[in-house]
Amino acid sequence: MSATTALHLAAEIGGPPQYDARHYVELARLAERGALDFVTLGDSFARPGLDALAVLSRVAPATRRIGLVPTVTTTHTEPFHVSSAVATLDWVSRGRAGWNAEVSTTEAEARLFGRRSAEPAAELWREAGETADVSARLWDSWEDGAEIRDVATGRFIDRDKLHHVDFEGATFTVRGPAIVPRPPQGHPVTVIDGTGGPSQEAAARHADVVLVRATAPEQAAGIRADVRRRAAAYGRHPDSLRVLVALTVDLGDAETAPEPGLESGPPLAAGGSYYRGGPVDLAELIARWHRAGAVDGFHLTPITPERDLERIVNGTVALLQHRSLFRTFYPGGTLREHLGLARPENRYALAEGRA
Question: N or C: which end of the chain has fewer CB within 10 A?
Answer without folding.
Answer: C
